[in-house]
Amino acid sequence: ERILALAAARPAWFTDGLELARQALGRWPTFAPAHAALASITLAQGDAREAARHLEAAARLAGAGADDGQAALAALAAARLLRLLNPRAATQLYQLALEHDPASVEAADSLTDRLADEQRWSELVRRVRARIALADPPGAVQLHLRLTDVFIHQLGDRAAAERERAAARELAPDDPAVHEMTATILADRDPVAAAAAWREVARLAELRG
């Protein structure tokens, strides 16, 4: 393990490190340090896909060994590498990271963004509601507003959008973002009320400097 770590840290030893790691996996397929070394070397050589493949393998091995911390870190690192190269694979890796670390804000935020990109609205709503139950008040406000936007612009459910907006307003009645969302919801059916909401946004923003 120490030799692999040294080989992965020194470019002059990369060739030997690759060979040694592959030989190790040939003998011990569940030897996680070999996957870690291969991920480090291949990433340094510019092969992000191959690095992500080994990071995912390391994540699954760590998970099988009940090492949730390492599993989450490896899955998240792999997801970052694939976010642009293979977005759908990144989605699965963010899910894997959350399975091992439900408190990971980066994984949760990134997964929400990926579900929106894939237009998986029902799953997005379910996951965001689960996050609201665990969030502090400021975080819950932002999550309620996110759901408001999804319900009004993607799902066409005004009643659900209004419930989410009301929940956000109850938590933060003086948050300009809440009043901005109110103006957005009312824009096409009550322009006068929408204009009043925009004036409230301006007033609160001025008070905050």
Q: Indicate the overall shape.
A: elongated
| Residue windows where pLDDT falls under 50 for at least 5 positions | none
The helix tally amounts to 12
Biggest sheet features? none
Strand content: under 5%
- The residue-averaged pLDDT reads 93
Instruction: State the helical fraction.
Output: over 70%
Cα-atom Rg, whole angstroms? 23 Å
Written as H for each helix and E for each strand, in order along the chain, the element string is HHHHHHHHHHHH
Q: Which secondary-structure class do the elements indicate?
A: mainly alpha
**What's the end-to-end separation, in Å?**
56 Å
Number of strands: 0
What can you see in these coordinates?
The protein is mainly alpha-helical. 81% of the residues lie in helices and 0% in strands. It contains 12 helices and no strands. It has helices at residues 2-9, 14-27, 32-44, 48-64, 68-85, 87-100, 105-117, 121-134, 137-153, 158-171, 176-186, 191-207. Helix 5 (68-85) packs antiparallel against helix 6 (87-100). The chain is elongated and about 70 Å long. The mean pLDDT is 93.
Map the helices and strands.
Blueprint: H1 2-9, H2 14-27, H3 32-44, H4 48-64, H5 68-85, H6 87-100, H7 105-117, H8 121-134, H9 137-153, H10 158-171, H11 176-186, H12 191-207
Helix pairs in contact: 1-2, 1-3, 2-3, 3-4, 4-5, 5-6, 6-7, 7-8, 8-9, 9-10, 9-11, 10-11, 11-12
Key features of this structure:
209 residues, mainly alpha, 12 helices, 0% strand
Summarize this structure briefly.
This protein is mainly α.
